[in-house]
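Help needed: design a sequence for this.
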């Protein structure tokens, strides 16, 4: 249920209301606007008697049920967009970020070279896989611990925060020691034990949509992270499995405006995994930007033809530079007053 707090209520009265919510076994989630304070009481469905009890309290203007099954992710609980801030920029609420780098960390030279050129062309976050879940058990699975150390070295040199995937609950603590953002990939998007664990790790989480997930299922997956106490979640549309085989997956561009109308969380697009071929990454990236995405996560490699994973879809430096130029131009056209500024944070 959602409690609408009366105007003019003191901080002490709000705190007392929060304690009362907790006494009934609900988890309070406070959203303070310029004129109205809302408190979501999240938990099991309240009985009419419980709702009437809270409605009768002097600090409460009204009590309304939360209709969405994804309580904390819903705009009913938090009507304003969530904005996540990093040293290099922000995402959400009109702010835009680009994360870029290789699919996998393969060597010191490779990740440092990639980090340098993606930063040079305007990326604000470095991506790279240290632990790689692969369809084939015989494919390259990443460098593991060494990959984490190389990512940390690249961050120290470039200043770019690092996002890398965590594949198992028992790896969360170790990956969180090095990463600035924990990625949960499409194959683990409904690994609820992993989602709960990353929710307790104290780091922002980048959650990719599963291959066959509905948008409601996607938000319910995010709810596991939020319910564990972590409000810093980025949703990523990365293409879903359909009957079409021309592309690796089918980028659901409509997911961007739909999600942004349903949730306060930032929504990004991953054009690389949707396309599967580097020639199509740029148009899909621009489609995501035009649809209103809050960011992109793009694969870029110094020598894509030598990449040990996803070689066909990774961008070399010249193509990545072109992508960044086109993204800036499109954002400037969509938001003439702020497009250039928000891409830089």
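Sure. Designed sequence:
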């Amino acid at each position: 249920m959602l409690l609408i707090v009366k105007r003019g209520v003191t901080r002490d009265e709000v705190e007392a209301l929060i304690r009362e919510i907790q006494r009934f076994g609900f988890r309070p989630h406070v959203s303070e606007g310029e004129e109205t304070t809302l408190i979501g009481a999240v938990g099991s469905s309240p009985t009419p008697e419980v709702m009437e009890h809270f409605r009768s309290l002097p600090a409460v203007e009204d009590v309304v049920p939360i209709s969405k099954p994804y309580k904390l992710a819903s705009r009913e609980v938090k009507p304003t967009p969530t904005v996540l801030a990093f040293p290099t920029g922000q995402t959400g609420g009109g702010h835009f970020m680009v994360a870029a780098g290789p699919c996998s960390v393969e060597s010191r030279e490779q990740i440092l070279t990639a980090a340098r050129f993606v930063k040079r062309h305007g990326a604000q976050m470095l991506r790279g896989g240290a632990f790689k879940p692969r369809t084939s058990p015989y494919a390259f699975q990443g460098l593991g611990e060494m990959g984490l150390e190389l990512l940390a070295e690249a961050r120290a040199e470039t200043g770019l925060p690092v996002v890398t995937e965590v594949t198992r609950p028992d790896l969360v603590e170790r990956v969180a020691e090095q990463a600035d953002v924990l990625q949960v990939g499409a194959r683990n998007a409904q690994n609820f034990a992993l989602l709960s664990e990353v929710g307790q790790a104290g780091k922002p989480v980048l959650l990719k949509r599963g291959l066959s997930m509905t948008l409601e299922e996607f938000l319910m997956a995010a709810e596991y992270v939020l319910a564990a106490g972590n409000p810093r979640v980025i949703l990523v549309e990365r293409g879903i499995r359909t009957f079409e085989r021309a592309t690796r997956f089918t980028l659901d561009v409509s997911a961007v405006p739909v999600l942004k109308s349903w949730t306060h969380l930032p929504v990004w697009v991953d054009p690389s995994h949707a396309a599967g071929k580097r020639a199509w990454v740029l148009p899909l990236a621009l489609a995501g930007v035009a649809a209103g995405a809050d960011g992109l996560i793009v694969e870029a490699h110094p020598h894509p033809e030598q990449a040990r994973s996803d070689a066909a879809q990774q961008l070399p430096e010249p193509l990545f530079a072109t992508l960044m130029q086109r993204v800036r131009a499109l954002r400037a056209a969509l938001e003439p007053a702020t497009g250039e500024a928000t891409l830089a944070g």
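Residues 317-334 form the longest helix (18 residues).
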